[in-house]
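The methods section describes the discrete structure representation at length, but only in general terms. An entry of this sort, consisting of the sequence and the corresponding backbone structure tokens, reads as follows.
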Amino acid sequence: MLTPHQTTQKPSGDATSAPQNLSVSTPARHEKSVTHPSTDFNSRMCSIDLCFVLDCSSSMSRSIEKIQPQLQKLCKAMAFEVYNKRMGCEVRYSTVFFRDHDYRSKRLESVDFTSNIDDIIRSFCTIETIGGNDVPEDVLGGLNRALSLSWQGDLKFLIFIGDAPCHGYHSLEDAYPDGDPLGLTPEGVLTSMRKKDIHFLFVKLSSDTNKMVEAFQAIYEDKKKGLELRVLDCRKEASTFVKDKLIREIKGKMTVPISLVYASARSLRQDPNWREYLEYLPQEMQDVVHDVPQEDVPLPPTTVSNLNMLKEGEDKLNFFTFKATTHAPIVPVEVSL
């Protein structure tokens, strides 16, 4: 039950006398944190980490030719949206290129996080698609290398692009059917990734990854943290998917923290004496602006209706209004919740 504010002073009787210290009882306030999807990228300075993990084996040659210019556009678009246009939100980029265990010298290549777009675009332009004697690739090795990078953004995104599953999670020809030859497991890699609060975006280019993706999703999902493996099916539009679909996904994850403050009623207490109710009124607008102590003006009530209007078990708000000329209280207004 909400009750009107009550003063502890006695009526003065002198309209010009200055008030003493004013004590006001207020409802208890509580605060909890909620998030609200932002229509803007962010209202404060922040940082975003984007890591691109690409399968660079021979089977990806044609796809990468189509994807390279789109990745460059994505990086430039993100820089414009969240830094120039949105004033100050830093974006850092990194890349991991993986192949398979049969090509050890270039099995894994990476560029650590940098805010220099030119460095990342240069790495995209130098991709070499080689290796891959069997269908599966070193997916877990690529993800594990990504985890070793210097993640530190307020928002973290890993964008995986590939057309082949990891070893052991498929029904295809596999040189390592029992899984990763170096001992990496999806449970170990994805659990570490989840602990870093990384949003996982999987760009699907082939149905060969279906079984692996299902296994990854079961491990990675964390509803409490809002983490999930999001699959972007781009088998039919590999040349145009990146800029539109990925930016849409990244925007959807951007939230602005706000505090939701609410009041709860105190324990039931005796109604105040409405006939001794004091109202403190500012004399000028400047008094309000500068929070000047106001004069206490006893207000003899002219009409009071139903002094027991706030009963136990009822949730109502009690509002008083005053006539502009006499400042006399008018009938309280009951609002049922």
Q: What stands out?
A: The helical segments are 61-84, 117-125, 139-147, 186-195, 210-220, 241-253, 285-289. The chain has two domains: 1-27+274-337, 47-259. The longest strand covers residues 28-37.
